[in-house]
Predict the 3D structure of the following.
Amino acid sequence: KNQVEQSPQSLIILEGKNCTLQCNYTVSPFSNLRWYKQDTGRGPVSLTIMTFSENTKSNGRYTATLDADTKQSSLHITASQLSDSASYICVVSSDYGGATNKLIFGTGTLLAVQP
Amino acid sequence: DGGITQSPKYLFRKEGQNVTLSCEQNLNHDAMYWYRQDPGQGLRLIYYSQIVNDFQKGDIAEGYSVSREKKESFPLTVTSAQKNPTAFYLCASRGVGGEQFFGPGTRLTVL
């Protein structure tokens, strides 16, 4: 069964600190993996996307890694800011550009950054 | 200003009522999607449409209906047959490369 599991479920950190969120997946065939940021009451916004051949991708203070052998990904946030408080969702795609675009969503990690 | 809009932001439904959620996009995307989000669960696919006048059931289509008469619009109707409709509903469209762009969502509450 295709699944995406994220940990921790929730996390509280102090402003300025770093943190790492984890994503393990059992999706086949694998096409790509995305990390989305979802503010409370808003739609998700894409942070990074990685294909099978990529093992790291950065977007400002966000750095995602992918280990396709162990089927694990992480999202590292550097020098956290209050605006980083949100839910972070790992999404794995199992299509190869086909119109059905099957996405498997993790349940998200809820991050709270405190001053 | 390109993007996806959803309306209303909040919607209240009485038992036995049908309600329609609006989704509009000006990104010129062919494919559009409706998801449901519940606390502690990942997004679940309700319906999707690859092209005008065509749509397919997703994983949890029971109690929902859609139409796709225009490329820009993909409204979702939550019918009285949906027994537990209280949730956050997200519409998305698919761009080049497969990335899905999400709207701001509609929170539906059953009174």
User: Anything to note?
Assistant: Chain A has no helices and eleven strands. The mean pLDDT of chain A is 92. Residues 24 and 70 of chain A are 8 Å apart (CA to CA). The two ends of chain A are 41 Å apart (CA to CA).
